[in-house]
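User: Okay, second chain of the day. Same drill as before: sequence in, structure tokens out.
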Amino acid sequence: MTHAPLSRPRSLAATFSSLVLIAVSVPCAVYEFRRAFEGVTSATDVWLAVGASSLSAIVGLIFLAWIARLRPSALAWIAAFAWGTGGALIISGFGNGIVDPAIEASGLDESTAEFVTSVVTGPVIEEIAKAIGVIVLVLTARRLLTRPAEGAVLGALVGLGFAWGEDVGYYLSALDDGISGLWESFLARALLGAFGHAIFTAVCGYALAWAVTRAARPPQAILAGIGGLTAAMLVHAQANGVGLVAPEDSWNLTYGAIELPVLAIGLVLLVWGMRRRHDTLEA
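Assistant: Same drill. Structure tokens below.
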């Protein structure tokens, strides 16, 4: 006797929230890309920048699709990536655009102001912006989540979308120095600091999913969520800090020696979290 395969559970709340995030994020992304392309006269530069940024995103999406199989839903995946590229990026842009000039005008010397905006305020603003989408998706899809690592995947998707949109602007600026400038920027952002934003927000996503799937009481869940967001900010801050203080003559070596192991640890933990079995959950 054969049995028809069980379909994946669905959630009206998760579907609705995903559609709302997509509806909000698409016009935000269009606005951000229009700003990035302002003043760019070379179509070749546009395609090179978009292509270089897309390469990292595609690699990340393929890996996540392999490890997570589009859980909790394909629509949630689209919403997470869209929020990173649209909603999170525009909130971060406006937030940093207000805070950075205020810090620079505060009387701090140039190096101190750069440190504060790069290591303190930047990670706080950007991780809060990205976390908004993760919180919405995790809360509304909580009945679909089978393990905390699925929340990490949603966070990683938001981070991938954020990096995809952000890197286009960086690569366009780098092309002012030609292909060599693009390569140097790609080396730093896509190879040595590979998937940094995905890792940062995955930490927050894991904690949020743990809060809704494992926490015994609301206070425990709230503390887990706050702790995850704080941890994401700290991991983000350390990456920016390393990039800021690394010696110029050995920047690539110093940055890569620290950030590549962070990537490796993150990948191992994500694979372990998605593959390990629970006595009450499916594999």
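DSSP finds nine helices and no strands in the chain.

User: Thanks, on to the next one.
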